[in-house]
Each structure stands twice: as structure tokens, then as C-alpha cells.
Design a protein that fits this description.
11 helices; mainly alpha; globular
């Protein structure tokens, strides 16, 4: 089976994606598309790619400046490599982002002589920077800067929950954390982000949740 690339994704740096590709509503489930792709149906692979390209691009682009496209492609190719495990997984999206998270951690660790504790170190601590096209507006830029000062694990947890619309249970699977631990870390992440953004700690949670979700970074959405 050959790797597939979405024919409608333009060169990196452009954001005017083909709406037929990026906004299509596929009837087939993720697992059905994966099975068809495994049977050499390239159209199914293209559809699966299109379904998750924007989210994966955003996932990497808020944390690294270079090799975003390569990391996305590597993640999707891992879907082929581990397709039997993916078929058995109860949640394709969570498994996919678990692959992406491991890819990210390996990328951030590659040039370091010592092991990185992603529960402590932030992207800023690691000297990383997000893609220059990741934020279009001042609010988004401020949010990305603030997220980059949080421990990487907490940044990932917040982005999965708010921007990729994952439940805490699914985000816990991505991060390979017990559910209770993920819930407590999400509370900590929210508190830290409030402080970074200068939001009143007594402000209602739903107002904070809406504001963060509304600032969903649009590197792959514009």
C-alpha cells in the first residue's frame, strides 16, 4: 500500500485550502476508511488524510516552526504501519493523536543530550517556536505565546480538549494518563492559562471555556 497525500493541500504557508477536500462530510467512519485504505483504495486514504490534516497541522504548528509538514506526514504514515492496532482501537482520533504526540516528543527530544520532562518543560524552555503562520490575530498570538509557557503536556492537554474537541477521557488516552490524573492536570492547566492571560480567577468557567475555544488557532483553517 502506497502512502497517500491529499491533492488539495497547497504548499506550506498558504491557507486557502480546497473546501471540497477540507470541509467534506464523509459518510464512512474512520475505521471504514482505514480498512479501505488498507485494501489499496487510495481515495479512502485521501479522505482520511483530509479529515485530519487541519487538526494535525495545528497540533504541530503551535509547537514547532520547522518540519510541520513532515511531522504530519510521518504521523499519517504511522497509521499505515500500525493499521491493525488502529482497527482494534475503540477511538481512532485518540489513537491518531497519541501517535502525533509521540512524534512531537521525539522531535523535541532529538537534539538534546538529556531526557526531557514534558510535564515540566515548556516549548519556550526548549527553545522552540510555533510556525509563523499559526496565528492570524492578536488574541490568537497572545494565546499561543501563553500556551508555549506552560509545560508541554499541559499545552497538549488544553489544545486537545478545546481545539480538537476531545473529552478528558480521550485526551487522557492520548497522553497515556489515568483519567483522574488528566482531570486534575486539566484543572491546573486552566488555572495557569488564566493567570498567563490575566483573566480574573473568579470569572465563570464557561466564559473562559468559550473564549479559549473561540480562539482556536487557524493555521490550517483560514
Amino acid at each position: 500500500m502506497k502512502p497517500v497525500a491529499c491533492p488539495h493541500v497547497p504548499a506550506r504557508g498558504q491557507t486557502d485550502h480546497c473546501k471540497r477536500c477540507c470541509y467534506s462530510r464523509a459518510v464512512d467512519s474512520d475505521h471504514e476508511l482505514l480498512a479501505r485504505w488498507g485494501n489499496d483504495e487510495s481515495a479512502a486514504g485521501s479522505e482520511l488524510f483530509a479529515r485530519y490534516f487541519r487538526g494535525l497541522f495545528r497540533f504541530f504548528a503551535t509547537k514547532v516552526d520547522d518540519e510541520v509538514d513532515d511531522l504530519v506526514q510521518s504521523t499519517l504514515l504511522d497509521c499505515v504501519k500500525y493499521r491493525e492496532r488502529l482497527r482494534a482501537a475503540d477511538n481512532f482520533k485518540a489513537y491518531l493523536y497519541a501517535i502525533a504526540r509521540r512524534r512531537l516528543y521525539r522531535h523535541l527530544s532529538a537534539t538534546r543530550s538529556k531526557a526531557v520532562d514534558f510535564g515540566v518543560s515548556s516549548i519556550m524552555d526548549l527553545g522552540g517556536s510555533p510556525s509563523s503562520i499559526v496565528a492570524r490575530h492578536a488574541e490568537e498570538q497572545n494565546l499561543v505565546r501563553s500556551l508555549r509557557t506552560l509545560p508541554v503536556e499541559l499545552q497538549v492537554l488544553l489544545e486537545l480538549h478545546y481545539w480538537e474537541e476531545m473529552t478528558v477521557d480521550d485526551a487522557a488516552k492520548v497522553l497515556e494518563l489515568p483519567l483522574g490524573t488528566a482531570k486534575s492536570r486539566l484543572r491546573r492547566a486552566r488555572r495557569m492559562l488564566r493567570e498567563k492571560l490575566g483573566i480574573d480567577p473568579d470569572a465563570p468557567d464557561d466564559a473562559f471555556d468559550r473564549s479559549v475555544a473561540a480562539a482556536r488557532v487557524g493555521a490550517a483553517e483560514s
